[in-house]
Amino acid sequence: MNHRLFLWMAGLTTVIALAPLGSVAGQTAPKSSKAAADAKTPWGDPDIQGTWTSDDTWGVPFERPKNFGTRATLTEDELKDRQKRVQQSEEFVDTGGPNAHSPAVAELQAKEKGEAPPAPAQGRGRGVDSAPVPGHWGEFARRPSHQTSQIVDPPDGRLPALTPEAQAKLDAKTKLRREAIPASYTNWSYYDRCITRGVAGSILPVIYGNGLEIVQTPGYVAIRYEMVHDVRVIPTDGRPHLSSNIRSYMGDAVGHWEGKTLVVETTNFLGDRMAVGVNGDGGAPYSEDLKLTEKFTRVSPNTVNYEMIVDDPKTYTATWKVAFPITQEPGYQLFEYACHEGNMAMHNMLNAARMEDKKAAAAAAK
Amino acid sequence: MKPSPGKKFSIILAAGCAGIFLCLIPAAGQTSAPRIPRLPDGKPNLTGLWQALGTADWDIADHSAAAGPFFQLGAIGAIPPGQGIVEGGQIPYKPAALEQKNKNFANRIKDDPEVKCYMPGVPRAAYLPYPFQIIQSQKDILFAYEYATTNRLINMGKPQEAATDTWMGTSNGHWEKDTLVVDVTGFNGNAWFDRAGDFASDTLHVVERYSLLDANTMNYEATIEDPATFTRPWKINLILYRHREKDARLLEFKCVEFTEQLLYGDLVRKPGK
């Protein structure tokens, strides 16, 4: 849909980059893989600090396609296919892809030369809307994932059945999002509105901005997410959750260490708004009873295994689990993502919708 | 030499609580100096929930009490009086910049980035009327501000040049004795200093200095330099206080949705149409 592309343009000044400059936090040369995987902070906690990305799971289906049944990993042949796609996406990022030619730039260049602007290609219009998806903004898996889906439990890799109430909420939301002429900013997702992507939406891989940064100090672990500049401060000193009267989009997170695994339990969510899915909008809105349990385990110098268990009986008829690795990549850096500050898209989309209203009113008056 | 009783105490204390969260260890050899929390590497541990008192976010300069812009809010919408945080009292604006500041003030309800829930920039983030959390690791230091979930990471490694201009700038930090010095560049020039319209351009350069005065108070000083806006560098100075309430923690103030009706309301379909 066009508005996504507009949002991309809105994010132009602030978007991710795979910049070559700068040191990567936490990438001091380890003596051995084992040592780095077992690294400890000076105060004795397992050290999972650094800049991480879920890029490697980009392209792995969230729910497992039914033909895989309960098979959680790819066969050798399937893996080769995915490897090919990974290479293709890497080439796309390197070269800008088959649509690297930007109509907007071509228009400017033609103007400079005093020539007529080139005809719009591939049925697209001119200007911002005609710009192809710029490859260098996109992120990509650097190695093929063996997983057939991001959901690993239930064994078929598919979301458990929704409760009737949750299905009704999902239907209402879908209707709202698909309204041909949106009435209000509330027609759009909380992500499009630059409010947040929520806890799950902030780490589930998407086309760009999959970076997160972990910082530790005695008694706390903090996670900052690049997209929509979210941040979670997680106490690990054994304190209980906040009063249930204090609710928020990112919820109240408390953590503890189980061996080398950081376990984070998050409750106190605002219900009926966000979903546990892509960009915090894919799927049924969760209830205020949602409890997320996340596990972070460093298994190699550059890999943390991430797990998220979703427990919300008002929404799902069973608990379910997502699992994938997050990795450190050379040169990968987080940039300020000033989403709301640059959200011209919302203004433009609503403005266009009101113009459509006017047109419709004029047509009706005839 | 036989250690003095004070020294002996500090040694016992240091040995007894090495590695414990917020362990209070007197500065080496300075038993009379205020005790400040330190990390195992000996650096002052600034980790905690901090907040400025006072009215600097209303106006960083000295100002009298005044009516607020919305009479409907009565006393709760009025502007409290405040002693400024500007050293010497005067912000050395160039003439054109002073004109802009006055324009900003006149249009503050429309133009103040805080009204629109935009990121506050530096130094404003330090004295917004919201707390912020410092998370100090053995390497970099995270500042997470409650307002708008703004955050910034202070790079304590090799200084990095700003890759691009941003609201919060690019922060490189280092320690000068027990003071955390943060050099901030790469601003986009859109942030203001307060609700009174004080501002700088994208050539702004801020050097912040955070020094613990004792375990629960911290001096904050910032040198403001912007040749496009000011005739000379100038300083602000204030005190940050640690939240000591039981279980105080950073909460969520995602203000975007509180601004949408203001920003987009005229483009929302009117009922009945």
What report would you give on this structure?
The complex is a heterodimer of chains A (366) and B (273). Chain A is α+β, with helices and mostly antiparallel strands. Chain A has helices at residues 2-10, 33-37, 76-95, 103-112, 164-178, 198-201, 344-365; strands spanning 50-53, 151-153, 211-217, 220-225, 230-235, 252-258, 261-267, 291-300, 303-311, 320-327. In chain A, helix 1 (2-10) packs antiparallel against helix 7. Chain B has two domains: 5-33, no CATH class; 48-258, no CATH class. Chain B has helices spanning 5-16, 95-106, 108-111, 124-127, 256-264, and strands spanning 24-25, 36-37, 48-52, 132-136, 141-145, 151-154, 170-176, 179-185, 205-214, 217-225, 234-242. Chain B is built from five helices and eleven strands. In chain B, the strands form two sheets. Chain B has a nine-stranded antiparallel sheet. By secondary structure, chain B is of the alpha+beta class. Chain B starts with a helix and ends in a 9-residue tail after the last helix. Chain B is 15% helix and 24% strand. Classes of the chains: A alpha+beta (366), B alpha+beta (273). The interface between A and B is large, with 57 and 55 residues.
State Rg of chain B: 21 Å
Supply the number of structural domains of chain A. Answer: 1
Q: How many individual helices of chain B?
A: 5
User: Which secondary-structure class do the elements of chain A indicate?
Assistant: alpha+beta
Q: pLDDT under 50 segments of chain A (min length 5)? A: 1-30, 122-134
Question: What is the overall shape of chain B?
Answer: globular
Distance between the termini of chain B: 89 Å
Shape of chain A: globular
- Biggest sheet features of chain A: 6 strands, antiparallel
Number of strands of chain B: 11
- Please report which band the strand proportion of chain B falls in: under 5%, 5-15%, 15-25%, 25-35%, 35-45% or over 45%: 15-25%
Order of helices and strands of chain A: HHEHHEHHEEEEEEEEH
| Strand line-up across the major sheet of chain B | 6-5-4-3-11-10-9-8-7
Helical/strand content category of chain B: alpha+beta
